[in-house]
């Protein structure tokens, strides 16, 4: 007997056909489509009016025709073949088959949000860029954060650089500040970019590893390109495993130019500083987060913004003139170098607030097209050869990805100011471009005039003098490859240095070719002997002879601004406590703790053995957001465990609860313990080992002390290695 199946035209659940309701006539007697009918009388005047799928009782084709039944294709007979005549079906499958566009060749995985930039200090003295014209001026922005190496579907906590690209929709056109969370880059000349990217992506003969630099080809390339050494120190540091997009810095990397109304130019570097301060995870935690929640960073951003906890960054500029550039030990055009904040202080000029998540990830985050060459009047390029190369690359890549020269018309890319040009037609032209004449000069404007005169209102390129022979050459001033890497290393706290050593050991340990490890350690000897020695020791190899630097290593002042930990903010704001609650837990203690953490600006996520929640001492059920099996402690900045009076045995028997505590301990987290947790602690083998950062939570005084401690750093003194 065949199972009963729905007949063509029958809705499978409701058993009744979903009939299209006829649209009412909208015109005042004029026939639809006649030449005399005014467009506004015919509906929407040509703009696509897309309803959310569920918002209409009737589904339509892409061309607006009501679809009779979207659940059964048109068949000849009950069990017969599907008919070519089912055009609605064909259109649906046709569209589906073409849903994917090429992912970005780098920075494929990313997440973004809308925001606003508010200028807090006028920069009119140095730039005529309208975005900095006066304090209080607001400019709409869109930001996309990303990892670099992984594919679109990779995980968020790869050890990698993070992209930090900002589109300012200024009133003189879009300004795209396409930066990273690291202020320097691997290479000096854009001609090496494809090689760099090919080395870090999956190896082409095997297709792995995904989203990671821990493999032979990457270390082969960077060890052969000593200019990359400085950047590897950053990517081996905690900067490459940020806790949140909200808690990382951003940098424009290159030296740009500001140009003021008088046509005077100064050099400028851009810095984003997170208001929440910087935070990173530890590597062992990152590895586990990638399994527990591959979307950790995007979820974090989405959750914060939708909760009204809008992340903010201060924009700072380092402005300097030619005289400083000439005196500085390094070439300011070399993107493998930074200018220490101690030498040129950062002037804070505005604040960006991300306050709106996207409505549609594809339309906005996937289709946003950043281009370094998008600069408004008042901002110009320097001759940094990496920047010059980028200015070619970004236009090309958008055509490849978005498929049409008209990508600037997509809502997320469209400037918020009017556009006026004679670029016409092309695939997917959505603008009904007005006017009879599409050329310049023309006299159809009414004026009988010749070509428009070049004015001072447009983007006037800074008239920098250029001299010299045409040659393929790397400037002498670009030859020092190690001094700033050394400065970075020496500016880190001992804990951060430990992490850098562990990261090199981990990554080089994944290289199968011993000669690559040796070459890299030989280069590291030029950065610091102790660093190289510790990495060699960690790899279990003899210390190779140092490589010969192209230029002598210059001893520079330590720059405390380069350390995350030395600049940590004393706050739990924007961070998350994982509160594991056992049955019978003290209801008052749970309430008190939750309130105190929220008052400190943090978020509490309740976890229980079962997602249904825990029954508290007062008999009430506390709803859980997560079951402990799906919420390992790596997902939280700190944890508290409030057990019931049964010695915590309910939790002690739960392997995930045991891991919850052990991992939190291993990751140096501040731990709160309330109720009878002895059995759980004993089951993890931690009895007798709990330290100063494992605090009781129960009484009001204990809760206050615990929440105060949450604002501090992890307990780095704990004798574990993660
Ligand atoms: Fe790039 C994307 C940042 C060097 C070529 N880059 C891209 C994105 C960021 C950066 C954040 C993602 C933008 C988004 O979210 O859509 N890139 C940098 C930084 C660099 C850098 C900070 C050095 C200072 N990039 C660089 C070079 C080249 C490129 C030298 C080529 C010569 N980058 C691209 C690209 C991408 C890109 C291929 C891929 C997708 C896209 O542009 O839109 O054109």
UniProtKB/TrEMBL annotation:
It is an enzyme of class 1 (oxidoreductase). Its cofactor is heme. Heme binds at residues 104, 144, 193, 390, 394, 401. GO terms for biological process: hydrogen peroxide catabolic process; response to oxidative stress. Residues 60-448 form the Catalase core domain. Keywords: Heme, Hydrogen peroxide, Iron, Metal-binding, Oxidoreductase, Peroxidase. One of its GO terms (molecular function) is metal ion binding. GO terms for cellular component: cytosol. The keyword ATP-binding does not apply. Residues 1-79, 425-465 are annotated as: Disordered. The active site is at residues 107, 180. Residues 446-456 have a biased composition (Basic and acidic residues). Residues 26-38 have a biased composition (Low complexity). Gene3D superfamilies: 1.20.1370.20, 3.40.50.880, Catalase core domain (2.40.180.10). It catalyses: 2 H2O2 = O2 + 2 H2O. InterPro entries: Catalase (IPR018028), Catalase_AS (IPR024708), Catalase_clade2 (IPR024712), Catalase_clade2_helical (IPR043156), Catalase_core (IPR011614), Catalase_haem_BS (IPR002226), Catalase_immune_responsive (IPR010582), Catalase_large_C (IPR041399). The keyword Oxidoreductase applies. Its EC number is 1.11.1.6. PANTHER family: CATALASE, CATALASE-B. Belongs to the catalase family. HPII subfamily. Decomposes hydrogen peroxide into water and oxygen; serves to protect cells from the toxic effects of hydrogen peroxide. This is Catalase. It comes from Knoellia locipacati.
